[in-house]
Amino acid sequence: MKKVTLATLKSFVKKNSNNLFINVKSSFSGYTDCVESVKGGFCKAEIKENVNYKYNLGIDGAWLVGSSRDYMSQYENENFVGIEVYNCCGQFIIAIAK
Q1: Rounded to the nearest 5°, which phi and psi values hold at 55?
Q2: How many CA atoms lie within 13 A of 60 on its CB side?
Q3: 66 contacts 89 by C-beta, under 8 angstroms
Q4: How far apart are CA 19 and CA 36, in angstroms?
Q5: What are phi and psi of 71, to 5 degrees?
Q6: Cα(64)–Cα(17) distance, rounded to whole angstroms?
Q7: Which of 4, 21, 40, 45 has its CA 20 to 30 A from that of 14?
């Protein structure tokens, strides 16, 4: 099993830009000043232009903090295959349908 890096994530997003799904598992809340669970499931992800690509890859719900503080692993279940990312801002899965 290969190590998943930021370059792996960027390549996966670029290669599958028309078929991406995102599942936001948790995100930072300014109301409570902490990371809270989100129960939304997978939804179609659209890559938007003219956004801060360095920190969100153009995808709503994705958030990268950089400086080697993003932790990534391969993700697979019966319906999706992709990459799971977690950091101090939350956790999300970027995947494509099998």
Answers
A1: -105, -15
A2: 6
A3: no
A4: 27
A5: -110, 130
A6: 18
A7: 40
Q: How far apart are CA 43 and CA 83, in angstroms?
A: 15
> Domain spans of the chain?
6-97
Asked if residues 27 and 63 have their Cβ atoms less than 8 Å apart, the reply is yes
Percent of the chain with pLDDT over 70: 98
How many CB atoms sit inside 10 A of residue 57's CB?
A: 24
Task: Answer yes or no: is pLDDT of 11 > 80.
Answer: yes
Rounded to an integer, what distance in angstroms lies between the CA atom of residue 76 and that of residue 30? Answer: 31
Residues 46-96: tens digit of each pLDDT? 888 767 777 888 888 888 998 888 999 999 999 999 999 999 888 999 999
Q: Facing residues of 86 across strands?
A: 71, 91
